[in-house]
């Protein structure tokens, strides 16, 4: 501003300039800051009033008694599981069928013996993704064996295969239909949106109710959880097919079927394979969580180890899962982009395929003849003891520091916030949710947000919900602060960004479950490790969106600002951050949703609250507790998503 | 330079049945399109209709005939509705009203199967952005139309190879579209349209995305193929020089309506309104006007031993003949004398050009001198 620098006013009459704004007033004018201040004010006023006129009211009976109803329903289900036609001819069949599918694939893998599986896996990886990935896959298999986790790894693989096949079988046709029909897309989009904001934990209880505990339940949950990206990405792929190619081929008289098979599907193939990759990764993360409802395999190994607080054992299974996730990701991603697929002349393709299958069969046969169907016990090597020793050494070294950090966070931030939320009269929190919704979005957002919070109370899960909410808010704040700082740094330094990229890639492929392991190693059990895991889990997408957003700013706008003499700080605060706003808002939204998902899973390491309700409900057959907690998670998710999305939407309309 | 070829000049145009007849065609985009047609709303102008109903009128009451074997050019600026119009001809966009007759049959009543047959056999289209299938080799792109007809592989490959040779792409059969340059890609597009041996070719700004030099090559290619194959063609362009070069007849389109339909000479010599006049203002008339346009009956006593010229010779090409001798040039068609063009006639045609330029220059300088407040051109 001319007035700031004191340069002489120009002769031309200038438009009335806004009052010179220092950073503090500019910050005050930012809507999120205003909203936060307003909320704090609201709470302060009400608390002040109560302090002046007496004590806080005890909590009112908001609970509708849904939990008891659900318990009765569960009792009915248990009593009638083998009598009601709904179960006898419906869910039970499905359950048996799914169970058999998982067992069949597991049996198939056993039948192949470990040498057969290794040869087949390595061959497939080579054929799709080249030598380097194949070598990586070979190492992965070796680690499964060496750690003595071969059986568990094969069970997990069988579960993933079953669920992914089912998810694709349902998801791709739906996606094609949605890609070709705008009306159908509009019909299913809200369902997909809803499914995607539902934290993984909320899926578990209904599946348990209908299918009981065990692998079939896990397969259902995993399938349902993995369907949305298959539908969404297939629809997007079909939609993004060059409209010129579609028009040109229509103009040559293609039938709708010809259009689909000769034009749309081939042109959409690569993107659809990307959807397959996403589906597999989601299935991977769910299959591990599903160990809570009795899925066997690696997830179960972690679950068992964590419940015994045995970091070493958890680390072994965690390592196996991490390696498997990265292997699955690399192989399917290569199938999608195709650049690393070895070029094999067309006439040799079938012979090469035959040779691979034959090699696997020979390896399997040889292993059977030699009687070495299981991984030789002599080749196993446990690292659990070593890890535990290391962990203890680490605890000796930094244990005091982490304990102090944890204690401070707990006493000074988390507990006070939880106290405010749980001690407030429920209507105050609902009003605050409503006000926040209105401030960030529309009246509709306000109503949805307010009702979602109210629902937590109506479900009888008010205290758990507020506890979870306090954890989410603290972790989200940490995530946003750290994520924005790192993201801005990455956007300003290509070297730093290049170093960060493989790390973020790897972190984004890991199932959320495994983040608990290092958190427990550092902070023991309780709410703090859950928060730490949530922050680490949610950081990669936040960092990435901030970095991409700033780098995506129109280069000409940046150039113009530099040409006008902006300093680097001015460039960042006046040009790049405002231009990247929609990315930044999306980063906040994504960060908060991932934090919520993780905080709930944190119940497994003692974070309590809603996640505990789900786990305890499942463990004790308390459907009422489990399901109401699950629904309250959805309520919180809906509130947090709508409010942060509302901000993004407002942004978009303001720019339109 | 090439004179605009006029295969069917107005005088000798056969009054046979049109290949394509478009009659009172309308296309209105929007939810309540049906509420506009047939009501008094349809007489309002575009903006008023959009304000009242939210609908956009893309094609408005358009009628024209395309004669067998001619290249009919539709020219207009972007947003004038020309691309919508050409898509209505095979119902790639469904017209809102009016009819399109192909060989006298109304295609509006065709069911999906019959419409596909029409697209597979009778009418093929070339697109601005090529619309090639990135996952197929050039030859498979060219053979696509034959493939969806159900033609066997050997047969359609033979035909596709022929077409690839015809458009000058021999040797590139196995290239994928992204390995070809823009001009080559459009040759594939052209070959694909020709492969089905259609009666009618539709071109939707086929060369707009190409570099100027390549565009000129492609225009030559179209003229050559047209001479060889004698297809009926409808050609959309926003480029006046392209229209003049290719069009037997040219329709000027504006805001969804046809402003004028005529030969290049008619547009340049007798623009229907200021809009068309603006358009053709910068055209060098001597490159467009032909002696047939200027000729008059010989006057008494005029010498009739001057050089001869065909009726379609442009003025620019008779100037050297007139300069070489004093006798007027005789315009002959075979043995018949159609008329003569004297020096004065040619000079007048050139002079009209320059008068216009001179008037404009004078007006400009007047505006510039009018005062600093004026927003005259700098």
TrEMBL record, chain A:
- Disordered: region residues: 1-21
Q: Which GO terms describe its cellular component?
A: ATP-binding cassette (ABC) transporter complex
Q: Which PROSITE patterns match?
A: ABC_TM1 (PS50928)
Instruction: Give the way it sits in the membrane.
Output: Multi-pass membrane protein
| InterPro entries to which the protein is assigned, alphabetical | MetI-like, MetI-like_sf
**Which stretches does UniProt call biased (Low complexity)?**
1-14
User: Which coarse location class describes where this protein primarily resides?
Assistant: membrane
ABC transmembrane type-1 domain residues are 153-332, 465-644
- Where does the UniProt annotation locate this protein? Cell membrane; Membrane
Q: Which GO terms describe its molecular function?
A: amine transmembrane transporter activity; carnitine transmembrane transporter activity
Q: Which UniProt keywords apply?
A: Cell membrane, Membrane, Transmembrane, Transmembrane helix, Transport
The text of the family note is: Belongs to the binding-protein-dependent transport system permease family.
What's the source species for this entry?
Answer: Murinocardiopsis flavida
Q: What is this protein called?
A: Glycine betaine/proline transport system permease protein
**Transmembrane residue ranges:** 33-53, 86-105, 111-128, 133-150, 156-179, 200-227, 280-303, 350-371, 427-460, 472-493, 513-539, 591-616, 622-640
Q: Which domain of life is it from?
A: Bacteria
- For this entry, list what GO says about its biological process: choline transport; glycine betaine transport
Looking up Pfam families in the UniProt record yields: BPD_transp_1 (PF00528)
TrEMBL record, chain B:
**This protein's record includes keyword Nucleotide-binding:** yes
Q: What is the protein's name according to its record?
A: Glycine betaine/proline transport system ATP-binding protein
In terms of CDD domains, this protein maps to: ABC_Pro_Gly_Betaine
Q: Where is this region: Disordered?
A: 354-378
Instruction: Give the compositionally biased regions (Low complexity).
Output: 360-370
An example Gene Ontology CC term for this record: membrane
- Which InterPro entries does the entry link to? AAA+_ATPase, ABC_osmolyte_uptake_ATP-bind, ABC_transporter-like_ATP-bd, ABC_transporter-like_CS, Gly-betaine_transp_ATP-bd, P-loop_NTPase
Q: Which UniProt keywords apply?
A: ATP-binding, CBS domain, Nucleotide-binding, Transport
The organism's taxonomy opens as:
Bacteria, Bacillati, Actinomycetota, Actinomycetes, Streptosporangiales
Q: Which family does it belong to?
A: Belongs to the ABC transporter superfamily.
GO biological process terms held by the UniProt record: glycine betaine transport; response to osmotic stress
User: What Gene3D superfamilies does the annotation carry?
Assistant: P-loop containing nucleotide triphosphate hydrolases (3.40.50.300)
Q: Which organism is it from?
A: Murinocardiopsis flavida
Transmembrane domains' residue ranges: none
List residues of the ABC transporter domain.
Answer: 39-280
Recall the GO molecular function terms of this protein's record: ATP binding; ATP hydrolysis activity
């Amino acid at each position: 501003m001319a007035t700031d620098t004191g340069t002489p006013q120009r002769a031309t009459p200038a438009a009335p300039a806004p009052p010179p704004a220092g950073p503090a007033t500019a910050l005050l004018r930012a809507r999120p800051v205003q909203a936060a201040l307003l909320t704090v004010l609201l709470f302060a006023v009400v608390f002040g009033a109560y302090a002046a006129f007496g004590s806080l009211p005890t909590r009112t009976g908001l609970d509708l008694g849904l939990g008891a109803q659900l318990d009765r329903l569960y009792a009915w289900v248990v009593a009638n599981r083998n009598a009601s036609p709904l179960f006898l001819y419906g869910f039970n069949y499905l359950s048996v069928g799914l169970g058999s599918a998982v067992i069949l694939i597991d049996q198939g893998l056993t039948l192949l013996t470990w040498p057969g599986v290794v040869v087949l896996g390595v061959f497939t990886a080579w054929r799709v993704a080249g030598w380097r990935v194949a070598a990586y896959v070979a190492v992965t298999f070796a680690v499964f064996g060496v750690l003595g986790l071969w059986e568990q790894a094969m069970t997990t693989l069988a579960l993933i295969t079953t669920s992914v096949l089912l998810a694709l079988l349902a998801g791709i046709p739906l996606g094609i239909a949605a890609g070709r029909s705008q009306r159908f897309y509009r019909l299913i989009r809200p369902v997909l949106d809803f499914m995607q904001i539902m934290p993984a934990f909320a899926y578990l209880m209904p599946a348990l109710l209908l299918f009981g505990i065990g692998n079939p339940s896990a397969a259902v949950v995993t399938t349902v959880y993995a369907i949305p990206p298959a539908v969404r990405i297939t629809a997007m792929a079909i939609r993004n097919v060059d409209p010129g190619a579609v028009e040109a081929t229509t103009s040559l008289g293609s039938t709708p079927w010809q259009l689909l098979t000769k034009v749309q599907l081939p042109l959409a193939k690569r993107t659809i394979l990307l959807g397959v990759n996403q589906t597999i990764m989601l299935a991977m993360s769910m299959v591990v969580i599903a160990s809570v409802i009795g899925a066997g395999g690696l997830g179960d190994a972690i679950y068992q180890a964590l419940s015994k607080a045995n970091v070493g054992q958890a680390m072994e299974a965690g390592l196996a899962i991490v390696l498997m996730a990265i292997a699955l990701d690399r192989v399917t991603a290569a199938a999608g982009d195709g650049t690393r697929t070895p070029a094999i002349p067309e006439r040799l393709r079938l012979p090469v395929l035959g040779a691979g299958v034959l090699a696997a069969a020979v390896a399997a046969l040889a292993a059977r003849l030699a009687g070495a169907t299981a991984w030789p016990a002599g080749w196993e090597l446990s690292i659990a003891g070593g890890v535990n020793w290391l962990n203890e050494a680490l605890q000796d070294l930094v244990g005091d520091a982490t304990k102090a950090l944890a204690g401070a966070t707990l006493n000074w931030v988390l507990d006070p916030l939880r106290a405010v939320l749980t001690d407030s009269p429920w209507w105050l929190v609902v009003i605050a949710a409503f006000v926040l919704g209105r401030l960030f979005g529309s009246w509709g957002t306000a109503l949805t947000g307010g009702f979602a919070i109210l629902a937590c109370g109506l479900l009888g899960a008010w205290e758990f919900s507020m506890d979870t909410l306090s954890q989410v808010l603290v972790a989200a704040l940490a995530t946003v602060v750290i994520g924005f700082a790192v993201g801005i740094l990455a956007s300003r330094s290509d070297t730093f960004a290049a170093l960060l990229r493989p790390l973020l890639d790897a972190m984004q492929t890991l199932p959320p479950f495994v983040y608990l392991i290092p958190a427990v190693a550092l902070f023991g059990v309780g709410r703090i490790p859950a928060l730490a895991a949530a922050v680490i889990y949610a950081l990669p997408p936040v960092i990435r969106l901030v970095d991409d957003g700033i780098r995506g700013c129109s280069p000409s706008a940046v150039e113009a600002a530099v040409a006008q003499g902006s300093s680097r700080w001015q460039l960042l605060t006046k040009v790049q951050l405002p231009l990247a706003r929609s990315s930044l808002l999306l980063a906040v939204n994504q960060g908060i949703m991932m934090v919520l998902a993780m905080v709930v899973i944190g119940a497994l390491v003692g974070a309590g609250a809603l996640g505990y309700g789900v786990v305890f409900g499942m463990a004790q057959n308390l459907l009422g507790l489990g399901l109401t907690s699950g629904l309250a998670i959805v309520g919180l998710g809906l509130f947090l998503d709508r409010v942060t999305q509302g901000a993004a939407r407002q942004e978009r309309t303001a720019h339109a | 330079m090439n004179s605009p070829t006029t295969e069917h000049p107005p005088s000798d145009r056969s009054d046979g049945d049109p290949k394509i007849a478009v009659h009172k065609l309308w296309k209105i985009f929007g939810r309540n399109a049906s509420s506009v047609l047939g009501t008094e709303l349809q007489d309002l102008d575009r903006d008023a209709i959009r304000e009242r109903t939210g609908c956009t009128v893309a094609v408005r009451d358009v009628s024209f005939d395309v004669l067998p074997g001619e290249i009919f050019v539709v020219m207009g600026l972007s947003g004038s509705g020309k691309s919508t119009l050409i898509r209505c001809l095979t119902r790639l966009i469904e017209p809102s009203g009016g009819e399109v007759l192909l060989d006298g049959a109304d295609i509006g009543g065709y069911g999906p199967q019959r419409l596909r047959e029409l697209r597979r056999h009778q009418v093929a289209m070339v697109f601005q952005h090529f619309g090639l299938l990135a996952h197929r080799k050039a030859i498979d792109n060219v053979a696509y139309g034959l493939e969806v007809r159900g033609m066997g592989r050997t047969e359609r490959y033979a035909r596709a190879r022929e077409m690839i040779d015809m458009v000058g792409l021999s040797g590139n059969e196995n290239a994928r579209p992204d390995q070809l340059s823009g001009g080559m890609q459009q040759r594939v597009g052209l070959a694909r349209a020709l492969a089905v041996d259609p009666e009618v070719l539709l071109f939707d700004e086929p060369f707009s995305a190409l570099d100027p030099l390549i565009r000129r090559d492609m225009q030559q290619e179209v003229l050559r193929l047209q001479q060889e194959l004698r297809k009926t063609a409808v050609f959309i362009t926003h480029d006046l020089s392209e229209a003049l070069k290719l069009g037997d007849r040219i329709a000027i389109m504006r805001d969804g309506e046809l402003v004028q339909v005529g030969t290049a000479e008619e547009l340049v010599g007798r623009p229907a309104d200021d809009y068309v006049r603006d358009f053709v203002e910068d055209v060098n008339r001597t490159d467009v006007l032909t002696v047939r346009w200027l000729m008059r009956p010989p006057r008494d006593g005029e010498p009739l031993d001057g050089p001869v010229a065909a009726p379609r010779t442009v003025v620019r090409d008779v100037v050297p003949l007139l300069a070489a001798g004093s006798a007027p040039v005789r315009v002959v068609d075979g043995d018949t004398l159609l008329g003569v063009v004297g020096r004065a006639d040619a000079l007048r045609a050139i002079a009209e050009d320059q008068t216009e330029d001179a008037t404009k220059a004078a007006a400009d300088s007047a505006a510039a001198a009018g005062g600093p407040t004026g927003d005259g051109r700098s």
